[in-house]
Amino acid sequence: MTAPAPARTRPSDEPGGVAPAIRKPPRALRLHDFPGIAPVAVFGIIFLYVPILITTVYAFNDGDSALVWRGFSLRWFGEVAQNTNLLNALIVSLQIAVVATVVSTILSILFALSVEQLRAKGSGIATAILTAPLVIPEIVLAVATLGFIRMIGLQPGMLALMLAHTSFCIPFALMPVRARLKSLGSSYFEAATDLGASSWQMFRRITLPLLVPGIISGAVLAFVISLDDFIISNFLSASGATPLPVFLFSLIRRGASPAVNVIATLLLVLAIVVTTITFLQSQRRSKQHA
To answer: What InterPro entries does UniProt report for this protein, alphabetically (predicted)?
Structure first.
């Protein structure tokens, strides 16, 4: 009859044995672990959003002062709708923003696809050159752009604004496109090559549809940046080509009125609507390709 195998003893069962220590998983850090963060965060949120809330509420003020409440009224919305100069400035800003968004997004797509074919060193240099406006002070860009357009014989105005906004918006449109392209990996393109797809077929049926969320995000970011820009617009604006931020600044210098609050509120609503639609479209496309 075979003898039973000896039972395996744990280190703690042996003479002088010590049970191994059981390591607990590290505890997740929480907000109360950093006592100074909460007050700073609350202050930052209040300082950021309370002025927006006040501006929105005072857009419905019946008085002539932007900061003195005289009762609820839609009076200033009508005033803004009938202000020809304001509407012209809005149209100028929208035209510039649309052109800058379309051109900068197209150039960003072409650059993102081209830079992937470069070596690592060349890719880094090209990206650093194109994204330099992100770190260069905007006042420097404005002065340099104004000097450059005068050197080539171009005067401040609509064309100069479109060219400057396009070049300034390229880095903002490029970042989401490159991030999306890097997240795709190479499996899609290798499979398409194995199936005999040409470069154009691969771009039209695979690359472009997969890049759509990044393209939309980059286009929205470029549009908002262009619509919101003041410094470059102030340097390059001219009679008949005054963007909305420059026009608003001139209104504030004459004295704050509820019209400024109305314009700010309408722009806020526009930004929320565009962002919401973009987010929903991106979510829908992501589910379709999942």
So the answer is: Bact_Polyamine_Transport, MetI-like, MetI-like_sf
